[in-house]
Design brief:
Elements (H helix, E strand, L loop, with lengths): L1 H54 L13 H31 L4 E2 L1 H9 L3 H11 L6 H18 L2 E2 L2 E5 L5 E6 L1 E2 L6 H14 L14 E3 L3 E3 L3 E12 L5 E5 L24 E6 L3 E5 L4 E6 L12 H5 L1 E13 L2 H5 L7 H6 L3 E23 L2 E10 L2 E2 L14 H4 L14 E4 L14 E4 H15 L1 E8 L3 E10 L3 H9 L8 H24 L10 E5 L1 E7 L2 E2 L1 H28 L20 H7 L2 H7 L6 H10 L1 E5 L2 E4 L10 H9 L1
Parallel strand pairs: 5-18
Antiparallel strand pairs: 1-24, 2-23, 3-22, 4-6, 4-21, 7-14, 7-22, 8-14, 9-10, 10-11, 12-13, 12-19, 13-14, 14-15, 16-17, 17-18, 19-20, 24-25
Helix pairs in contact: 1-2, 1-14, 2-3, 2-5, 2-14, 3-4, 4-5, 5-14, 6-11, 6-13, 12-13
């Protein structure tokens, strides 16, 4: 027996020397690998930040094999996460030894082992230690790692923005001068007046927009530009109306609007005459009547003191009409299909009103852009100031009276056809191209005024009586637009009692005419009526996807790295205070540091007493867990020993060796 002990002692002595050499070498590796892993994790993070900063707010990268930024970030996030979690996992395994400096259940070895493997085990460890041990940050990191990849992916988004398309086209037409007969403003004006009503899609509740931009990409912008156009002003002249009424008039005794013989008079019904000086008379019997005609020369009722408007005037119209005074309840009960008899039946009373509408030539400033193929052109300013004109008016238009002469004819003035009116240029808009100044010759304005007289002058009155005129109808005369004015604007069934709606409709009706006149002069699609138009070049934009980085999500990865580094530093400091760098603590010189994160260390550290009290073989997991939770142990030197009463302890290995020697 003594020989066997001596042989065992020699073996232990030899192994101890070898252990010192191996421990020294492995300990260096044990320190180097975590450092290298942590460095790799920070390097991966820095690479991610550098690449994302390079492409932030830039177009998408064109990398080989269709690799995207998301793929790049996912790969290096996984690489970095693996790099910094490797030493964290090792540190969790190593810190279990400090946990057992005090009395703990043997089952805690299993808890620490599972925590070093993944998130669920770390959650169990956090619950077990209740954040009372410095291993808590490491366990929290293990739990948070499953969020790293999805959260870093949230940092990258691909919004769409407009970028300048250098090879695409964006232009809008403008014009500085009109000159007839080269410019066919007679046919152009007729076309514009028809477009003014056809283009309306809101019952004149909103005005139509000027159009004319060309945009090859569907998204274009233009600087503010100027063009010669037609503007409109309105004035209420009701106070200048003269109202007369006649009772007991019989058929043929008086004329009516559009009926000089008086054959359509309703016997014994009152006749009203609303008139303005100059022969503008509207004789009618029913509450629905409209009359409009042009003023001659420099005549005006509402703009007598506005010299610049009279000087640049193309045509002035007077409009006389009745305003039905309909109760709201009666108007609401009106059907969309109500006819003239039904409409007249709900009108108990009415009043007469009049307005002057003045169309004049002007310099218009536009703000145009095209978005997703839809053009939006806004008239943002206008100026109508003639240059060098001393007379009170430029165009001296003389037309026949519609009511009395029954014709829509205006006289021409060939002697003045070559006269030119010049308008002041606005200095605010940037569209001065080529020649300077805006101008129009006399003949072009005369053409426009004549065609406006033909298209807009006229009258309309409702006519109905159940006994004398049972066939209800509307008598109309004059231009093409009178029926639209009567039916869709002044006496629209949807707002016949709504005076505000009617005023809006009237304003937009005449504004639409001015807008389409300006567009035809400037653009004239598909047929060109003017020849002095020029292009205003804009910027064509196209939608392009770009990279947008939300750095807050990347900060999550950075915080993990910092937390991991802090945890490792704390672990190193705690362990360095426990020994000289190789050892677990100063009282256990026989426990090499290089094995303390290995499961083999736990197997070797269990004392014989622990093994005998824990289990004498492999059993079902529930039984092993129950036994481990019931056995309380602590680290004593290099062994895990049970914490029980001394009289219950079996003889230790040292006692057995002493007995053998004795």
């Amino acid at each position: 027996m003594a020989d066997e002990l001596r042989e065992a002692t020699e073996i232990l002595r030899f192994d101890g020397g070898l252990n010192d050499r191996l421990t020294s070498r492995v300990s260096e590796d044990d320190q180097r690998y975590p450092f290298q892993s942590s460095t790799s994790g920070f390097a991966a993070f820095i690479l991610i930040v550098v690449v994302l900063a390079r492409f932030d707010q830039q177009s998408l990268p064109d990398w080989p094999s269709k690799i995207t930024l998301n793929t790049f970030v996912a790969f290096f996030t996984t690489l970095g996460k693996a790099a910094f979690m490797f030493p964290v996992s090792m540190a969790i395994s190593q810190t279990q030894w400090t946990w057992f400096h005090r009395e703990r259940p043997l089952y805690d070895f299993h808890v620490f082992d599972q925590a070093s493997r993944g998130a669920w085990g770390s959650l169990v460890l956090l619950w077990r230690i209740r954040f009372r041990h410095f291993v808590a940050p490491g366990a929290a990191l293990m739990v948070l790692t499953f969020l790293t990849s999805p959260l870093t992916q949230l940092a990258i988004s691909y919004p769409v923005r407009d970028v300048l398309a250098a090879t695409e086209g964006a232009k809008v037409l403008a014009i500085r001068t009109i000159n007839a007969p080269t410019d066919r403003l007679d046919t152009g004006t007729r076309k514009a007046m028809l477009l003014a009503t056809v283009a309306d899609a809101s019952d004149f509740l909103t005005p139509i927009e000027p159009l004319g931009a060309f945009c090859s990409t569907g998204n274009c912008t233009f600087d503010t530009y100027q063009s010669l156009g037609v503007c409109v002003k309105t004035a209420n002249i009701t106070s200048q109306l003269r109202i007369q009424d006649f009772d007991g008039v019989q058929v043929g005794e008086m004329p009516l609007l559009g009926d000089d013989e008086g054959s359509s008079i309703i016997p014994a019904e009152k006749i009203w005459n609303a008139s303005l000086p100059g022969g503008y008379d509207m004789l009618h019997q029913t509450p629905l009547a409209v009359m409009t005609d042009t003023l001659n020369g420099g005549d005006s009722f509402g703009f007598t003191n506005v010299t610049t408007l009279l000087q640049t005037r193309i045509a002035s119209f007077v409009l006389i009409y009745t305003t039905p005074l309909v109760p709201d309840t009666a108007s609401r009960n009106q059907s969309d299909e109500a006819d003239v008899p039904n409409t007249l039946a709900v009108i108990p009373n009415f009043r007469h009103e009049a307005m002057e509408i003045l169309f004049h030539i002007c310099v218009q400033s536009y703000d145009t852009n095209v978005h997703m193929g839809v053009e939006e052109s806004r008239l943002i300013g206008e100026i109508s100031e003639p240059v060098g004109l001393k007379d009170d008016f430029f165009l001296d238009l003389q037309c026949r009276n519609l009511v009395h002469d029954k014709v829509l004819v205006c006289e021409t003035n060939p002697d003045r056809w070559d006269d030119v009116i010049h308008l002041k240029d606005s200095v605010e808009a940037n569209s001065t191209v080529g020649e300077i100044g805006f101008s129009a010759n006399y003949r072009s304005m005369e053409m426009m005024a004549t065609m406006m007289k033909v298209g807009m002058g006229g009258y309309a009155r409702a006519h109905y009586h159940p006994q004398y005129h049972p066939n209800a109808g509307v008598y109309t005369g004059g231009g093409d637009l009178v029926q639209t004015l009567f039916q869709d604007v002044v006496y629209n069934l949807h707002g016949i009692s709504n005076i505000t709606r009617r005023d809006i409709g009237l304003t937009n009706y005449y504004l639409n005419i001015a807008t389409t006149l300006s567009s035809v002069i400037r653009v004239g699609r598909p047929q060109r009526y003017t020849h002095g138009a020029f292009n205003i070049t804009g910027q064509a934009w196209k939608e392009a996807t770009y990279v947008h980085i939300t750095w807050g999500w990347i900060a999550f990865l950075a915080s993990e790295l910092v937390l991991a580094a802090g945890f490792l530093i704390i672990t190193i400091i705690v362990q360095s205070k426990s020994g000289n760098g190789r050892l677990l603590h100063r009282e256990d010189p026989r426990v090499p540091r290089d094995i303390k994160n290995s499961s083999l260390a736990t197997l070797a550290a269990l004392s014989k007493e622990c093994r005998e009290m824990f289990s004498n073989g492999i059993h079902p997991m529930d039984e092993l867990k129950s036994a481990a939770k019931g056995l309380r142990v602590r680290l004593d030197g290099s062994e895990i020993v049970p914490v029980v009463a001394e009289d219950e302890l079996p003889p230790s290995r040292t006692d057995q060796m002493d007995r053998l020697e004795n």
